Amino acid sequence: MSRALSQVEQFKALVSWLRSALRESEQFTLSYAAESSAFVRFNHAKVRQAGEVQQASVSFKLIDQGRHADLNITLAGDPQVDQQRLAEGLQQLRETLPLLPPDPYLLLNHDGWQSTQVQEHPLPDTAQVVEQIARAAEGLDLVGFYAAGPISRGFASSAAAFGWHQANSFNFDFSLFHANGQAVKASYAGHDWSDAGFAKRFEQAREQLEYMGRPLHTLAPGEYRAYLAPAALDEILGMLCWGGFSAQSIASKSSPLQKLYAGDQHFSPLLDLAEKVSGSLSPAFSGEGYPRSDLALIIAGAAGEQLVSSRSAAEYGLVANGAGGGESPSALNMAAGTLPEAEILKQLGTGLYISNLWYLNYSDQPAARLTGMTRFATFWVENGEIQAPVNTMRFDDSAYSLLGSQLEALTQERELILSASTYDQRATASALLPGALVSRLTLTL
Amino acid sequence: MFDFHPQLKQRFAALRTGAEFFSLRYVRESGQYLSVRKNVAEPPHLSRDEGAMLTARVNGVEAYAATNDLSPTGLQAALDRAEQQARALAAHALLDLRQHTVSSERGDYLSPDLQQPFPSLSECYQLLGAESAAVPKDDRLVNWQVSIGINHVEQIYLNSAGAELRQAQRFVYPGLDVTAYDGHDSQTRSLGRENFGQQGSADVISRCGLIGAGPLVADQALQLLLAPNTPQGPRDLLLMPDQMMLQIHESIGHPLELDRILGDERNYAGTSFVKASDFGHLQYGSRLLNVTFDPDIPEELASYGHDDDGTVASKQFLIREGRLERPLGGALSQFRAGLNGVANSRACGWNRPPIDRMANLNIEPGEQSLEQLIGGIEHGVLMSTNRSWSIDDARNKFQFGCEWGQLIENGELQGVVKNPNYRGISAQFWNNLSAVGDRSTFKVLGTPNCGKGEPNQVIRVGHASPACVFSNIDVFGGDA
Description:
The complex is a heterodimer.
Chain A: H1 3-21, E1 26-43, E2 46-64, E3 67-74, H2 79-96, E4 114-119, H3 126-136, E5 141-157, E6 162-177, E7 183-190, H4 195-212, E8 222-228, H5 230-240, H6 247-251, H7 258-261, E9 273-275, E10 295-299, E11 302-303, H8 310-316, E12 331-334, H9 344-348, E13 351-364, E14 369-382, E15 385-389, E16 394-398, H10 399-405, E17 407-410, E18 415-418, E19 430-433, E20 436-443
Parallel strand pairs in A: 4-6, 8-13, 12-19
Antiparallel strand pairs in A: 1-2, 1-5, 2-3, 5-6, 6-7, 8-20, 9-10, 9-12, 10-11, 13-14, 14-15, 14-16, 17-20, 18-19
Chain B: H1 5-13, E1 21-37, E2 40-41, E3 45-58, E4 61-67, H2 72-88, E5 106-110, H3 121-133, E6 141-159, E7 164-181, E8 186-192, E9 198-199, H4 203-208, H5 214-226, E10 233-239, H6 241-253, H7 258-261, E11 291-293, E12 316-320, E13 323-324, H8 331-337, E14 345-346, E15 355-356, E16 361-363, H9 370-375, E17 379-391, E18 397-409, E19 412-417, E20 421-425, H10 426-429, E21 433-436, E22 443-452, E23 457-465, E24 468-476
Parallel strand pairs in B: 5-7, 10-17
Antiparallel strand pairs in B: 1-2, 1-3, 1-6, 3-4, 6-7, 7-8, 7-9, 10-24, 11-12, 11-16, 12-13, 14-15, 17-18, 18-19, 18-20, 20-24, 21-24, 22-23
């Protein structure tokens, strides 16, 4: 029996026990998350820190007479121990509910939906991957992180809904440093490790590193034409997704896109942005028990749909569309433009080619005015030719300018960016994005 | 408390391995997050978590395996995996740890008032409900939320050299925020939340100032809505402790982390403008700047007896009279760099390995009262409560924003200004430190949200600071 089947069966056993233990007036939702991960950290092309992590947990909501509470329980992987922990959790929640008032914003999904996605593509042996990385990085200053293994997510409810998502994946996120301290960033990620695919990606990064050896071009603060590569655009969208499309944030006036949703601002008509769950790497259901819908968030530069959790649906009279409690997108998809990749430098002419941005935050959140840094391969381009890497610079600009009035073009080609985030657990978020050519980027420091 | 200790010790004693050194770090954590938003109690979020990390050293190469299976076979399997990993990757290991000494410390550490029961869930909801109800009725107040987060953490560290360390801690995070909106702009004012957390009991809620704060915080949100933008240009800058903590964190704490200086974080959190050769030489700030690693303030978030590698924690000056003395580096980084450091090797939980973290990083108080600090400013601005932070990967060029600003002219506080932002360069900024507040301005603060490391870790850090004045800083406002 494979590990995946073993986990799904363990989850089903817990669900089955819970159904039998419930009182007539009680309802539940139970979501499951587990992963086994190999983690290898590199510095100076050597292994700095390596290990494995095996973890599993359930998030258990008990509902009774309009009252509800949530309990997250770490599982041990032993069916008897886990059933005991769930029983103790049930008892804790039963003791908690009478202390609470009924929740006016409780909205349960009573559909008995079913969803199963299992991808068991074999992953390479960690030692072999390390061997391959070490060979490729010989003579180079490589810093990076390899994370790989199976991830499982599950959901079940007293309304007979059941979802199971399991996938094997790897993500090698790395940087190559030149002796002068300049660096390029790259990643090789997916389900199917290919030696040739890795070698090609590594070679691209190595070629870019050649440019980093040129003498540094020092820029003064001011306004510049700029090309934002997909990874740089991903950072900007990442900030806008921090409450930007959330129904609760929009209603409570804490969304950075509140002016967009109020109709007071708009992006360029070139901009179409969607949360496209179908075909993405993330589960097709949310942790609170709704199948996730594809959503058109920005349509030709104007506000589209919002991400609506069940709580927001109840509070604001909206329709829940499968957003989790945080109401953040996790499968972004921006429509491609018309600028061919081969034409980027020519169309840019003279300005900045920005591969990555870093550490963004708001200068004025309601105005969607952002600040952040250039990082990794950022080049000065003159007359369509890369001249030199530039020193680290800070930008400060409104998103309505960068992706609105100053957006000249989006690229024909798009890049699939798989999240390398491993806070608490390995992320399944992704973004399929083009690059963006902007006629004015304001640098301040 | 520590009820799993006897069983764990027995299971640890039964472990078998070919490793020359091994350790086990067990962590059990329970938490509850309670909130009332716009007078509606939100469902409580409760949690129970436990697991262990086993580390094995084979021929000077270490690897780890973390497991949720705490049975004897589960722990043995994890130790076996750690040992196999150490052997499999030996040819490519960066470090040879054969000469690196390990801890054989024994001891217990408890949070203050740990035995004192915390108010019940009902009492907490009552308090949150009362504060929420105290927010005045005003159509412009569109959102407000009052919350308390409580975490209990027990950790037991055992190793094959005889170390036996136990710590039990309770962390409390009270918070309140109010958002005001006028149909065009919105402004949020907060108390606590990401800017405040301490170890202790119900007294933490009082020390945060949450009780009775609703009307004042709401009034300040409305004042901000009516206020003009912060003017642009150079001014003297008076930072209150709830912004100083962010300033210390980003532009002293992170650049002094020794693992960053050694290059470990170059692919993620970044590097540092500080070099290993700067310690003992670099004038980091003005002579008024005294920065300490201080694990001895009991209520501060990262006070503890030993770090997660078993090194004894004690107060150390990192910067004395402006001169850089030592980095934030734990035993392993000290071994690698040949520098003295501090006991700051920390992990955020059982499933992440220890790395260099900030712990408690404080600025020592000076000699001026708040009135004296304000009185000494001819043309300036006071800024309070962090809301935005951005800094480059070498921790040098920064831009920070606050919730609350007040102009200062000719030694007197003037009107409120909104969207107060400032920018600077760490290597120069601390040399502009021109006055340091006395103990009456000193506050013990902290945040649960410091992110770093691969795999990623978010950990609690403490920062205590007086109010401080910086001369001639570039300040500016927002668009609205």
